[in-house]
Amino acid sequence: MTRSHLHFLLNGENVTLSDVRPDETLLDFLRLRRSLKGTKEGCAEGDCGACTVLVGRLSGGNLVYEGVNSCIRFTGSLDGCHVVTIEHLRGTDGGLHPVQQAMVDFHGSQCGFCTPGFVMSLYGLWMREPNPADATIEKALQGNLCRCTGYEAIMRAARAVSHYGEAGRDPLVSERAEIIARLKAMRDGKRVEIGAGKERFVVPASLDDLAAVVETEPNARVVSGSTDVGLWVTKHFRDISPVVFIGGLDELRQVSEADDVITIGAGVSYTDAYAALAGRIPALRPLLDRIGGDQVRNMGTIGGNIANGSPIGDTPPPLIALGAELTLRKGDARRTIKLEDFFIDYGKQDRAAGEFVEALHVPVPEDGMLFAVHKITKRRDEDITAVLGAFHLRIEGGSVVSARIAYGGMAAIPKRALAVEAKLVGQPWTVETVEAAMMAFESDYQPISDMRASGDYRMIVARNLLMRVFLESEGETAHVARYEVAR
Ligand SMILES: Cc1cc2nc3c(=O)[nH]c(=O)nc-3n(C[C@H](O)[C@H](O)[C@H](O)COP(=O)(O)OP(=O)(O)OC[C@H]3O[C@@H](n4cnc5c(N)ncnc54)[C@H](O)[C@@H]3O)c2cc1C
Ligand code: FES
Ligand code: FES
Predict the structure, then answer these.
(1) Which of 215, 224, 290, 314 to mutate to test the pocket of ligand 1 (most atoms within 8 A of CB)?
(2) pLDDT computed for residue 150 by the predictor
(3) Which residue has the CA at smallest separation from atom 4 of ligand 3?
(4) Which atom of ligand 3 is nearest to the CA of 114?
(5) Is there an atom of ligand 2 within 6 Å of 48 CB?
(6) How confident is the model at residue 354, as a pLDDT?
(7) What's the rounded Cα separation, in Å, for the pair 239 and 165?
(8) 300 CA to middle of ligand 1, Å?
(9) Is residue 270 over pLDDT 70?
(10) Domains (range + CATH), the chain
């Protein structure tokens, strides 16, 4: 059962579309086809947040609104969703929305180009957290850049929004039952297929349907959160069709927790994986907080981070260090492999034609394990990794009993430091052992120089991160002097 059109809500309007290109972005749809020009294009690569809109989706029985970058979100991924743009904030009397009024009164806007994006991010925040702490506001605005106002005025506006209105009376909250009913009515359980020949995209009706589509069309491009693929279109003008959009499949968006393992569906976003991963494995929290900005975390998936096979993806090194496994599916057949075996070479993964990533299984570190992750970037927030090290060690009776160490940014793939591990295991956990292990990095890695870092810098950083883990495990100050002498 298929249909050849999409249904979604755009502000208050039911939209039905049958003429959509696989690579049409939501931003182009809004600005070029609907003349909704309040949403701005700044970078067209998910970095600046000027294009932020809210997308509401049904999750279980709830309706969840999330800020997304419309510049890298594809229109074809919106079936059954509610798109909310800055134009929807206009009150019935034509007045400003509480978020807009706060931005005006606290001088949160100068040239104004970034302002609609800030307003939409703050609107999303206000609905889920009407009286946010400063750290919560800062996190919500990580994905919004402003060149002229200076963030303090925007922070003041953000703190004040609830003085201008009550979130519970906002139409998106007070009319929620009606919106849910309208979105549910769009769910007919049918596969969506739009376009013909190569210029085509499919939105599978279920996980089994996805398996059937990918098996029969092994060359189709699977698109999940599109935070990588979106840039292939907007920056590299790559032809991505035919496309299979999987972001709306509830069965791929499940997280389940057992005592010793967390299973994460390939379509789970960073935002939805956060509670389980950061809650059970606290060392992952700072890393997850620094992946993109809120908009990227709302769209991007860990499954996509892995399937993309990038040597600088942030989740593979810690997941490899933890001993994570990956389930791949082709048709009805599934196989589960060690995550580290998935990465074969640059751009080459252990994924057969017609196969897709279905789920990830993350072991929770046992009591007493030392687990640490360090991401090194030029800028703290919204920056891509130069080097990332993940360390999972068991130290007992002062000696290293086991070690799993993996790095990103050091090789063509995320890769374990097997020679370094060998220098540690069975040895006393001392500065001398760590210094000896630091010399083994050259056996594991020959990092390249690129725009993010030189090969020499990467090597020094990689070694020092191991020392950092040692120093932190021992109580930093006690060993700093000793280490400086040793260098
Ligand atoms: C502004 C910005 C900041 C970013 N910051 C970071 C960062 O800090 N750290 C980081 O690691 N990454 C970062 N990224 C990159 C990106 O967000 C991540 O790699 C993300 O996890 C990709 O997931 P996705 O669902 O968006 O993948 P998509 O873009 O949808 O897909 C990526 C690749 O995976 C394939 N794919 C996706 N799902 C599956 C599946 N289930 N089975 C088979 N193949 C699949 C696609 O075909 C494609 O090849 C950033 C991106 C942007 C735009
Ligand atoms: S235009 Fe910059 S994030 Fe979309
Ligand atoms: S007000 Fe000018 S970029 Fe923010």
Answers:
(1) 224
(2) 85
(3) 146
(4) 4
(5) yes
(6) 97
(7) 46
(8) 6
(9) yes
(10) 2-88+174-245 (3.10.20.30), 98-169 (1.10.150.120), 253-486 (3.30.390.50)
Q: Is 294 in the pocket of ligand 2 (CB under 6 A)?
A: no
Residue nearest to atom 27 of ligand 1 (CA): 304
Q: Is it the case that residue 424 has pLDDT exceeding 50? A: yes
- Arithmetic mean of pLDDT over the chain: 95
Q: How far is the CA of 41 from the centre of ligand 2 (A)?
A: 6
Q: Which two tokens stand for residue 108?
A: 């949160």
What is the residue type of 444?
A: D
The closest-lying atom of ligand 1 relative to the alpha carbon of residue 357 is 42
Q: Kindly tell me if the per-residue pLDDT of 15 is higher than 70.
A: yes
Chain segment 173-227, per-residue pLDDT in tens: 999 999 999 999 999 999 999 998 778 999 999 999 999 999 999 999 999 999 9
